[in-house]
Protein: Iron-containing alcohol dehydrogenase
Organism: Blautia ammoniilytica
Amino acid sequence: MYIGGGSIKRSGLYDKIRELFKDFEVSELPGIEPNPKLTSVEKGTAICKEKGIQVILAVGGGSTIDASKHIAASACYDGQPWDLVKDRSLVAGALPVAVVLTICATGSEMNSGAVISNEKTHEKLEINHPLLYPRLSFCDPTYLYTLPSKQTAAGAVDILSHVMEQYFQPNDEAYITDVLSEAVMKTVVKYARKAMDEPENYEARSNLMWASTIGLNHLLTVGKGGAWSVHPIEHVLSAYYDITHGVGLAILTPAWMEYVLSDKTAPRFARFAREVFGVGEADDRKAARLGIEKVRQFNRSLAMPSTLSEAGVLEEKFDEMAAEAVRTSGIASRAYVKLQVPDVKNILMNCK
Amino acid sequence: MYIGGGSIKRSGLYDKIRELFKDFEVSELPGIEPNPKLTSVEKGTAICKEKGIQVILAVGGGSTIDASKHIAASACYDGQPWDLVKDRSLVAGALPVAVVLTICATGSEMNSGAVISNEKTHEKLEINHPLLYPRLSFCDPTYLYTLPSKQTAAGAVDILSHVMEQYFQPNDEAYITDVLSEAVMKTVVKYARKAMDEPENYEARSNLMWASTIGLNHLLTVGKGGAWSVHPIEHVLSAYYDITHGVGLAILTPAWMEYVLSDKTAPRFARFAREVFGVGEADDRKAARLGIEKVRQFNRSLAMPSTLSEAGVLEEKFDEMAAEAVRTSGIASRAYVKLQVPDVKNILMNCK
């Protein structure tokens, strides 16, 4: 079965793939939406069961791949797909998933996670299981040439955020992981705007594409670990308002950094500022502040909005969303700086 | 079948493994030598065929793993093991190899290569085949606590050299690979001496161990490629004089850098000096020279010899060895700076 978004028909990739598989029986599930929805997963699962699908080919970005992974597991499960998100121990099998990557952002092409939005419950949650690794992924930077500027930007913010989530953690002994992370972050900062300005620049596209894959294929979590901070908050925004994931991250990240900046976090934030953005300031606290400003500048350079109101997210749901972010994540118990519901609310208020 | 060096009996690891496998039939091939020899491979192959061995457990460092890989392939081949080195297309199968790593240096625990020395022909050549990947490798830094200082040093030089061989290549567009490589090189420079001084320092051992694995698991060759320069020369030294691989690399590397330094190579050597050793010099040529001096200093800090005569390698074989290095490698046709026989001879002369 082929699963994809809409853009590949315009780019000609769709015709190419159909031609390659002309001797096979192929079912289609086009039109997977950003923040892929449970209803799409349910639709795909039904097709798999009905047609006896044997392999899923995900052609697209993180949304398409994530939906495909969830469908792959749901096709081998008798109950409701959402059960598997709530209790991953129910995953007992999965159809093989192959990937043709056309958006670089989530790293889903080389990891075992998938994030799915349940429209009814306003939950955007991750299912993660070793059986969900794609069996193979084709990552050809020329497939990114037709990617619109906005998606290139949102993807770059997502990559940078993945690395930051792994990098801002208490353990300082995994030096090699920290320097590898800085390498990937420098790459994103160097090429993001360039890929927007010159969509067919192979150097920019290939460096970003590979950064997205190794940004979240477990390499950068070796010796680190701990719960993430900004992603869980953003997932709630997306679940309530269906905003672009990268846009939510761009707004929240500097606000989170400012909120958790302290004597304890300043040295690492300062290191980030110096290594990733070349900040020369010797005082840690000052360097950390300059680093936060650099993140804001970077986001602005990608034409990202800087407030929640610009993105259409309203204050009236802040309490509910803050509670939900804490309830559905390890942010209060295992994050770099542990945050409770009022903290998350404050961060949202600072992004108004 | 268990294959290993000698040290694991002293460390207690041998007893632990025998206890774990007490319910299995186990054959042993202890005493694999550094620069593992064809005769050992032949011995191991005979045991595999005679006893119908199903799995090989390599307990040791690169020599043990490399011998195990070659044995694994030879056990599934009817002719002579050396045939497979001369013509890898003859590899049609391989027993599964598992690894318990006790020396970090070669990266063999996560790649598909093996370097074997033929004592009769003075050839030290690589066999490389996808079937030779270890199926799993246990990389526990505490197994390095008993590793002697000299082997720690030689291993660190080997890791650094692997990354340099991949980093000094003509393609400058793979920025992400370059910065990842710099990250790994910085790690080696930071921790090598520390691991010698404090053999039970987990931070130093774990960072070096992981650097050795990702130093040669293909991550750092993405977008680069091209033939290596220093390794092929060193392999000939080891094949003729059986010197420690890392010692040969330490002597040859700065001499090679000096020999190929030119207006064309200076910018990359300068970048290496700045990023890996923090050299502040703005002029490329001067920075490159400072970088070479830093490599020499690093080697001295690890108590490495700096001349071939100290290592027992004699001038009388220089002509023969130079010819052999060119004959058995891509150094004259595909290296960063292409070197002919007289060039290699000159480099050897500069190391006398």
